Amino acid sequence: xxxxxxxxxxxxxxxxxxxxxxxxxxxxxxxxxxxxxxxxxxxxxxxxxxxxxxxxxxxxxxxxxxxxxxxxxxxxxxxxxxxxxxxxxxxxxxxxx
Length: 97
Description:
By secondary structure, this protein is mainly α.
């Protein structure tokens, strides 16, 4: 997941134009990741994780393994839901901490 989001970060002018330390709005984060169309319930569950990850990328901080595992879990279930491989309820259940 970090590779995918790093590529998004490197090629995305929206993320690149945000100075370090500036708070991001949720809508900007999801739009930057191409996830604007996610269901609100899914966004609500993953929003804190995504906010932290985007900020980590922007600040150039190292990513620890526990947080990386959570990011991989998020990416897997979002892609499974978006591809129709699982229902919204299954994704929600899997993404709840």
